[in-house]
Amino acid sequence: MVDNAKGFFPIILVVFLLRSFIAEPFQIPSSSMRPGLIVGDFILVNKFTYGIRVPVLNKVMVPVHEVARGDVAVFNFPPNPRVDYIKRVIGLPGDTVEYRNKSLTINGKAVPDVADGTYDYLEQGLAMIRNDQYIETLPSTPEAKTYKVLKIPQAPVYDPAQVRDFPYRDNCQYAEDGFVCKVPQGHYFMLGDNRDNSLDGRYWGFVADDLLVGKAFLIWMNFGDFSRIGMKIE
């Protein structure tokens, strides 16, 4: 029994190191990142991308790459860090993010979006949802990030009843047609690609650097749609 336990220890250690520093699997639980990610996708998250971090404290020991606008990032949910969220990085520290009448502006410059037809999907327990689909191009480094987003024309820009009190709340101003937020240092602003069906930064504020888990990069399984296996996350 003791010998068997010793034999398993190296395997356990390798798994621990891989999950702590290199990559970790996650499952997509909602439609907030459609059309790119759908319910049932199992994804891999590169925990090395944003630097080697001290386990538990999640402080960067060895920097590797900076967080970039347009990254699809997994992070600990600010109001409840035991819960993992996935959204797209829209604003970096010091950025001014404005979202009015379904149009995004970063530091005073409009983010281009081009109409790309419609996108319909069946939400679990609900009727078919029809969205307008757009190709959005976000300024980033070393190159701009292009991806698809969904919008429902008749839906409001945000639901005022869901806006919480959050740290640096005074950095955001809300109006009927949208909002503007100044991202504090050491923090990031996140939005879901399914803009009118996403609980994101417009409601709960900013993500601190020490809440970042890693960058999503690959769909490795979807038991309901095998054609999605191996798809790169843009």
CA(first)-CA(last) distance: 47 Å
Count up the domains.
1
Strand content: 35-45%
Number of strands: 17
Shape: globular
Q: What do you see in this structure?
A:
The protein has one domain: Umud Fragment, subunit A. The chain is built from two helices and 17 strands. Mean pLDDT is 87; it is low at 4-21. Helix content is 11%, strand content 42%. β7 and β8 (103-106) form a beta hairpin. The protein is globular and about 45 Å long. It has a seven-stranded antiparallel sheet with strand order 1-2-17-5-6-15-16. The protein has a five-stranded antiparallel sheet with strand order 9-8-7-14-13, with no helix packed on it. The N and C termini lie far apart (47 Å). It has 234 residues and is mainly β.
